[in-house]
Amino acid sequence: MRKFVTHTIVFLIPVIMIIAGTEWLLRRIPNDYRLKRNYLVGHPKDIDLLYLGNSHAYYGLNPEWSRYKSFNAAYVSQTPREDLSIIRKFGDSLTNLRWLVVPVDCFTLYETMESGKENWRAKFYPIYYGVEDPSLKNHFEVLNGSFRNNSERWVSYYLRNISPISCNRLGWGTNHRSSDGKNLIESGMEAAKRHTLKKNETVFNQNLAALESICMWAKNKNVVLLLVMFPANKSYTSLLDSFQLNETRNTVSTLIKKYNSARFFDLLNDPRYGDEDFYDADHLNEKGALKLTQQIDSILPELTKR
Amino acid sequence: MLFNSIAYLLFLPFVFLVYWLLNKSLKSQNTFLWIAGCFFYGCWDWRFVGLLLLSTLIDFYSGRFIYEAKSAVIKKRWLVLSVSCNLGFLGFFKYFDFFIDSFSILLHRFGIQAHLPSLRIILPVGISFYTFHGLSYIFDIYNGKIKPASGWINYSVFVSFFPLLVAGPVERAAHLLPQIENPRSFEYEKAVDGLRQILWGFFKKMVIADNCAMYVNQVFGNEETLSGSNIVLGAILFSFQIYGDFSGYSDIAAGSARLLGFDLLKNFNFPYYSKNPGEFWRRWHISLTSWFRDYLYIPLGGNRGNFFFVTRNVLIVFVLSGLWHGAAWGFVIWGLFHAIITIPFIFGKKNQNKESLSPESASPGDALKMLMTFLLVSFSWIFFRSQSLADAFRFVSVVFSSSVAAVPSLHTGLLFVWIIVLLLLEWRARNNNHALEDLFATVKRPFRWILYYLILFSILYFGGAPQTFIYFRF
């Protein structure tokens, strides 16, 4: 028995060393989450306007084009629960924060990061943002994503010198360029199908509770909260489930009546955004991002006066 | 808790260490095994641990009362009670909604609009397996083959032994109970070979089955019309998926059991090397087919009787075997298909050729028979895998169309290389328990370990996106 245990341990030592080494190598690779976290920690007083939320905000709002000191802490598939975690972790240090922008799109209340295809991103929050997560698995890079994907990540960075950073220094996603936009009809159909979701009461209530907590935090901190339904192309909006859309709008409207520091801006069918402003049917390109950033800027003073 | 999960990779070593530390006391060891089994099951769904315990209680005491009963009438009453409870639980959880829905459809065909209550019952994982464990125990006691378990804990371990709890093999009390009731001693070679078997099981599951699943899901989940050649390819890949998945699971289960000093029934004996459907069923899911043979086919009369009598017995066994796999007509048709293709071999006496169980070599004629049997079995998997009977018939009609000659559009990449590796290694090991049993026996340890690392690396690097074990659904 002792011989068996000894041999097994000796056999596993190289395996454990490789796993530990892979974890260490993966954690040293620069990534957008660490960049955003470092900015929040390093420049807390330089943020008057904070953008949170999903890829619509990540690609749609560029702080470099805002006249206010702003930062984009949004990311792909980030839901209200992750937004709330970020607020709770870093919010108290953002002493100059005056406005908070959070997207509420037709799917926001209907899915969690764990339930979507991008559930592998859940690990980034506890590992790089340092937020709490009860799942032990989400505290290790190697336990998320396949061995092959993880190997390709460190090969890509250490051997091919390809940087995985996809945002600018203020957190805006730079990959959605008008020069390589997607077919709006096809992407609209695919996105509408992906975002048409069967309501799960537990998930819905969890997301609503997270949004409500954000509203409450904003109210306590005297921060104006803008809940924004982001602009999208008609090839997408015309295919959305109307029940899901109306339920989202009604829920948010009820929420803002309760919290007078919160406002809801429904820009889903805003005519100011034409085909030329979209990278794909539900994401803005740099032209659309410029438009939206400036549009948000223009309404902030009015909100502060109220 | 899936076998291919971090949780199991932590659970198994923990159980192994504590189990052997308790080696001085058989009672403590068995109690620990029982707790481990309940914990393992509870990780799936804690709500059904109670059902497992209730089923175990009923069978334990029924077995005892059957054994102690003085009269045949009382024996039979306890037998009927236990069998009714077991089949009642299975019938309710697994088949209630199926029969209600089927009955509603039947009434609708006759123009009767009946709104029968459908409960959408959750199927407790492993119920088909542990129910059959219990039934085999009761039947063997009733038939005087075994004595009851010497204690409640020992019987509970028989039912809830974690390696076989959720997907078999369907163990027999006569085989496993004596191992539970007698002290086990640690055997180095057995434990090492157990680890090798686990490694091979993971290879079959993660490299073969999970990679095949990617393509199979494309074929069988496709709402568009695919060519016949794609469907044939999908069926062939499903043959390897279900084999890799289920035999891989069985190897992991058997290997885990061997670490604890137990030997489980062999569940697969390289079935795709069968030369006829009868032989296939002696090599595929052996624990279940032998269960049906011993507790249904033989009591019905087996091979004794005229053509219609034997045919009836075969049809009953295969249809029920199909239904055991799931509450859907596709499984019934699958079972019926296998009954039809097996019957000729029962009457042709070819099914009794014991030499065919361990072929020393395969002549071109044998190779052709293996290929034909494999293609027949692959064809039958269309009914097993399709999401509905209508889909299955649609696929079958396309297979028999001219599009079967078209070049398949599925690009399987390295997958067929891995399948060939599987076939070659298993052909080499066709007289062994598993492919890695003596593969590196003549190689010195450091080089043997390098080969194990290569297999481990291939599992981790080439393993497909994780899929649930198919037989967990049954």
Write a structural description.
The complex is a heterodimer of chains A (306) and B (474). Chain A is of the alpha/beta class. Chain A has eleven helices and seven strands. A five-stranded parallel sheet of chain A has the order 2-1-3-4-5, with helices on both faces. In chain A, strand 6 and strand 7 form a beta hairpin. In chain A, helix 4 packs parallel to helix 8. Chain A starts with a helix and ends with a helix. In chain A, 38% of the residues are buried. The relative contact order of chain B is 0.11. The longest helix of chain B is centred in the first third of the chain and has 38 residues. With 474 residues, chain B is mainly alpha-helical. In chain B, 67% of the residues lie in helices and 0% in strands. Chains A and B meet through helix 1 and helix 6 of A and helix 1, helix 8 and helix 17 of B.
Features of this protein?
heterodimer, A: alpha/beta, five-stranded parallel beta sheet, 7 strands, B: 474 residues, mainly alpha, globular
